[in-house]
Structure formats: C-alpha cells, structure tokens
Amino acid sequence: MNPEQIHRLHALRMDNDAARFAMDEMRPRFDTLRHRHENGTAPRAVAAFQLFQTPAPMAAALVALLDLPPGARVLEPSAGLGRILDALQPYQPAAVVAVEVAPQCAGELYRQDRPGVRILQRDFLTVTPAELGLFDAVAMNPPFHLRADIRHIQHALQFLKPGGTLAALCMDTHHRAAALQPLAATWRPLPAGSFKEAATGIAAVMLTIRKP
C-alpha cells in the first residue's frame, strides 16, 4: 500500500470518527422525538369550523384590559384551544369556566393541564347564568361568522356581576359598531394583519364593556 492510499484511509477514518461523534451527540434528541407519539409531546393538528386562534400577544393584551382583582371568577365563552386561558394563568384567578362548542377543541382542552379551569362542551348561546352563576370578568374571542360575535357578546353580558368587565374581540364592521360600540367603555381597532398567524386578514376590534 503506497503512502497516498494510506493517507486516504487515514482521512476516511477521521471523517467516520467525526460523523460517529456527531451522531452520538444527536442521539438523545432523536430518541426523544421517536417517543413523542407515546408521551403526548408531539404536536397535534386540530381543525374546527370558525377556529381562528387568538395570537398569544393579543390574548395577553385582551386579558390585561380586565384589570382582574385577586381571586376573580372568569368566564371564557369560546375557548378554542386555550390561548386566552393561557393568558389568564399569570393572574391566578380563583376559578375559570371555559365553554367550547367544537368537540375537537373541547377534547384538546380536556387533555391540557389547567388547575382551576372547568370545561363545558356546549354552544355558549344555550348556556344560562342559572347554570354557571355570575363572573367578575369575561374574556372572549367569539365566532365572527354571520355576526355571531354580536350575539355572543350580548349573551355574555348576562354573566357579569355588577361592576364586572367584559373584554372581547369582534369583527370591525358597521354592523358590529352599531350594535356594540354604544355599550363599550373602550373600542380599539386592531392593526391590519393582527390575525395573520391564523391565516386570515380579517379586520377586528378589541373592546371592553363594564357592567354598572
């Protein structure tokens, strides 16, 4: 074997050793990914009619408008996959009731671990204060289809205690403004593209209503 062949074999051996070292470093990550379907950490794709998830920064801004008192009782009438529920957690409410009509979304909410959150799989428009009681605050991103946001927000007002606050999103149209803006303490149109991550260019408003 001539010196050139020996040099080539030596170089190949060094390349193989380097590749084996890199694979050994990556193996724990591959093992974790391999078992994600078993340990529940794999991403889950969920589709439901009128599911436009609230972007996390928007959910945080919405909840901040509530000015939640310690130990508040909060209603989330269109919980989706829990973005607003996540935004509520830092405020440590005493109790949260989450209503969600879509069984796919409700199933995901049941799988999530949120102490103090009661989940109800129902059409919110069929739920009454006699069933759930009254709340210090309501935080909601209702469905927009066929002006459902107007009906959901008006229905949610029945669940507020005197002095309570509702913070909601609604579609930015003349009909919504005519129905809801006269009730609103604050009315803030959101920047264009606010729902871009939900794959929609819908124009929306963030509003609050306070019950006397």
3D architecture notes:
Helices cover 38% and strands 20% of the residues. The protein has a seven-stranded mixed sheet with strand order 3-2-1-4-5-7-6. Helix 5 links the parallel strand 2 and strand 3. The protein folds into two domains: 37 residues; 155 residues, Vaccinia Virus protein VP39 (Rossmann fold, 3-Layer(aba) Sandwich), CATH 3.40.50.150. The chain is α/β, with parallel strands linked by helices. It is built from eight helices and seven strands; from the N terminus they run αααβαβαβαβαβαββ.
Any descriptors?
about 210 residues, alpha/beta, Rossmann fold, 2 domains, seven-stranded mixed sheet, about 40% helix, about 20% strand
Quick summary:
With 212 residues, the protein is of the alpha/beta class. It has 2 domains: 3-39; 56-210, Rossmann fold, CATH 3.40.50.150. The protein contains 8 helices and 7 strands.
Residue share in β-strands = 15-25%
Q: Order of strands across the biggest sheet?
A: 3-2-1-4-5-7-6
What is the approximate shape? elongated
Order of helices and strands: HHHEHEHEHEHEHEE
Describe the sheet with the most strands.
7 strands, mixed
The CATH architecture designation of the largest domain is 3-Layer(aba) Sandwich
Please state the structural category: alpha/beta
Level-1 CATH class name of the largest domain: Alpha Beta
Number of domains: 2
Q: Helical region count?
A: 8
Mean pLDDT: 85
Number of E-type strands: 7
Radius of gyration: 25 Å
Detail the poorly predicted runs: 41-49
Termini gap: 95 Å
- The helix fraction, in percent, is 25-40%
| CATH T-level topology of the largest domain | Rossmann fold
Question: What name goes with the CATH superfamily of the largest domain?
Answer: Vaccinia Virus protein VP39
